[in-house]
């Protein structure tokens, strides 16, 4: 959702640093942006630049030299998409400014307390914060003013305030993510660690109810409730700077799809599989939870654990987990899957499970994130930074980890590695020129379609759901993924002449029944796109995916990603920043 980036320190181009910083957060989704800075030259007030729409070719060359600045990309909630509603928001003196993520649920009540004497220029909930800090700072130091204001907020929030007079930036969080970066005589703050990579790898994710005070030479972490200083140990990011670049690809999504052969190969050398296996074995009742693509990885896990390890694990969409929590107790294990580790629905579900004393294990890509810290057993996904809104390499890596865990539980660790080697061979084949050309041609064929279906059985069912999600979220073609057996229970009514129907047809126990589904759709005029190790009469188009035993779901999903990507490019759309979507959904 909204993005935050702040800088204080030795450099005099703080506004530009911040502007470049919010550009790295564009993928989170936004509809307006703003930068505010304290000018080096004498000025009575902070200087702001705010714009509606995307950053595009804009710059901040018109902003003055500064060593203290912050910026924000806004995703409108309270108040329309206007310049007035765009952050930063100034107090009445123009010397205090705030940016805010989240929702101040009691802003109406708080606003009534200050509105008589203060002029509000926006319709946002956020602006109340700047006037409250203004009032409090007339009697207290700035840090205390921010703290007492923050403590009055209800809801999930992250706030950063700048004081021109005291030359500092003070941040506080409860729910919405914030990470600080420690530099050499310069300090950073952002809503996401990847934006900090060009400057520092020494970071610290603020916990709920923690504050950070950033000055030229230090960052001090405080307990927001007591106001006392906390001693923390920074995390060292293992990601490389280039990992967060496009590396010659035209989009992040393309780069991230193409990174999968390497990232998946690294899974073969993991040493932490056994710890997840042990946690599952020791649990009485295990639950896989996640949202969106991460949930489909959970669903894939249920098939893998049941067929390979003969173990039943429940999969549940995190936002629905609440309604099943009566079954959770101190012997339960919740295995939470997430790329960002900040998805609010998932964090909420995990917190509730903790209240029932369940153990929390997680497979999470962003180390140090909220989910990471909430977990008794956090396992790094190690897919590297994923910037494109559509989740790709994170998901296939998670499935690889679950696959190997299932083999480990079954006592067949070596066989798991053999299967992963087959997966790698099949994946590499997809990235051969001929195969990429075929996928490209197939995607072009359905670029004008408005409706398509993706079907599969067994592990090809989550692959079908995931492929449909990928296609709809970036190409805006309505795509429905379903279990092939469900076709005749309703959806087949929508198939007419030319409707694209993607069928996953691996050589496994689902083969005949899946083929029958393809024939049923073909008989109604469907244009059958077969993803299979071999050509079939039923197919109008064929994409070859070599079988990889129980791991075939991984190459199948990658073909689905490429189809979604190619059709999006064919439609001249930006896959990295699809409309209405954010990379990290930090609100409920
Ligand atoms: O960061 P998370 O893995 O927790 O995110 C979960 C979903 O929001 C995410 O997978 C979403 O569905 C993606 N846009 C799918 O490509």
Radius of gyration, whole Å = 25 Å
Share of residues in helices? 25-40%
- The rough form would be described as globular
**Main sheet properties:** 8 strands, antiparallel
CATH class of the largest domain: Alpha Beta
**CATH architecture term of the largest domain:** 4-Layer Sandwich
Question: What is the straight-line distance between the termini?
Answer: 11 Å
Using DSSP, what is the number of strands? 25
CATH fold descriptor of the largest domain: Glutamine Phosphoribosylpyrophosphate, subunit 1, domain 1
Kindly name the structural category.
Answer: alpha/beta
Bound ligands, each once? 5-amino-5-deoxy-1-O-phosphono-D-mannitol
Average residue pLDDT: 94
CATH superfamily of the largest domain: Aminohydrolase, N-terminal nucleophile (Ntn) domain
Structure described in brief:
The protein is an alpha/beta fold and 588 residues long.
Structure notes:
The strands form four sheets. The chain has an eight-stranded antiparallel sheet. Strands 5-6-7-8-12-13-14 form a seven-stranded antiparallel sheet, covered by helices on one side. The protein is built from 17 helices and 25 strands. Helix content is 34%, strand content 22%. The protein starts with a strand and ends in an 18-residue tail after the last helix. The chain is an alpha/beta fold and 588 residues long. The site of 5-amino-5-deoxy-1-O-phosphono-D-mannitol (M6R) has 17 residues, from helix 8 and helix 15. Residues 291-294, 338-340, 343, 346, 389-391, 469, 473, 581, 584-585 line the site of 5-amino-5-deoxy-1-O-phosphono-D-mannitol.
């Amino acid at each position: 959702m909204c993005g935050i980036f702040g800088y204080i320190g030795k450099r005099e181009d703080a506004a530009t640093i911040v502007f470049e910083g919010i550009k790295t957060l564009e993928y989170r989704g936004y509809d307006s942006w703003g930068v505010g800075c304290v000018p080096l030259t004498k000025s009575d007030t902070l200087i702001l630049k705010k714009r509606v729409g995307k950053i595009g070719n804009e710059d901040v060359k018109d902003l003055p030299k500064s060593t203290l600045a912050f910026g924000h990309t806004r995703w409108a909630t309270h108040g329309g998409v206007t310049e007035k509603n765009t952050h930063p928001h100034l107090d009445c003196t123009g010397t205090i400014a705030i940016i805010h993520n989240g929702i101040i649920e009691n802003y109406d009540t708080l606003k009534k307390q200050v509105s008589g004497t203060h002029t509000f220029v926006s319709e946002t909930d956020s602006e109340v914060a700047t006037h409250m800090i203004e009032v409090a700072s007339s009697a207290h130091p700035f840090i205390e003013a921010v703290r007492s204001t923050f403590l009055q907020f209800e809801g999930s929030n992250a706030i950063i305030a700048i004081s021109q007079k005291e030359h500092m930036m003070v941040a506080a969080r409860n729910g919405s993510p914030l990470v600080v970066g420690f530099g050499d005589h310069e300090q950073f703050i952002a809503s996401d660690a990847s934006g900090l990579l060009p400057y520092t790898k020494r970071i610290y994710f603020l916990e709920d109810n923690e504050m950070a005070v950033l000055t030229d030479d230090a960052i001090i972490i405080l307990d927001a409730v007591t106001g006392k200083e906390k001693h923390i140990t920074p995390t060292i990011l293992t990601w490389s700077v280039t990992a967060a670049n496009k590396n010659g690809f035209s989009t992040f999504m393309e780069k991230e799809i193409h990174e999968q052969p390497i990232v998946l190969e690294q899974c073969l050398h993991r040493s932490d599989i056994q710890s997840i296996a042990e946690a599952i074995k020791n649990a009485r009742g295990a639950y896989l939870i996640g949202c969106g693509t991460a949930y489909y990885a959970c669903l894939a896990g249920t098939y893998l654990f049941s067929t390979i390890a003969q173990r039943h694990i429940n999969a549940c969409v995190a936002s629905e987990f609440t309604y099943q929590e009566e079954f959770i107790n101190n012997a339960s294990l919740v295995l939470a899957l997430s790329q960002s580790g900040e998805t609010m629905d998932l964090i909420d579900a995990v917190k509730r499970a903790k209240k029932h004393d369940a153990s929390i294990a997680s497979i999470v890509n962003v180390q140090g994130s909220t989910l990471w810290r909430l977990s008794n057993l956090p396992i790094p996904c190690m897919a590297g930074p994923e910037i494109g809104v559509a989740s790709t390499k994170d998901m296939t890596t998670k499935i690889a980890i679950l696959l190997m865990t299932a083999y480990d539980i079954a006592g067949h660790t070596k066989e798991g590695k053999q299967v992963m080697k087959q997966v790698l061979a099949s994946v590499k084949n997809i990235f051969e020129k001929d195969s990429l050309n075929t996928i490209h041609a197939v995607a072009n064929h359905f670029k004008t379609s408005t409706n398509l279906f993706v079907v599969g059985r067994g592990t090809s069912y989550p692959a079908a759901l995931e492929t449909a999600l990928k296609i709809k979220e970036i190409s805006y073609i309505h795509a429905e993924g379903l279990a092939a057996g469900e076709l005749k229970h309703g959806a087949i009514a929508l198939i007419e002449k030319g409707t694209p129907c993607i069928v996953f047809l691996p050589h496994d126990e689902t083969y005949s029944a899946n083929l029958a589904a393809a024939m049923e759709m073909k008989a109604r005029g469907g244009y059958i796109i077969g993803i299979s190790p071999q050509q079939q009469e039923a197919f109008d188009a064929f994409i070859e995916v070599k079988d990889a035993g129980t791991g075939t779901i991984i190459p199948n999903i990658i073909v689905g990603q490429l189809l979604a990507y190619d059709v999006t490019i064919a439609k001249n759309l930006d896959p990295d920043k699809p409309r209405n979507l954010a990379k990290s959904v930090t609100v409920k």
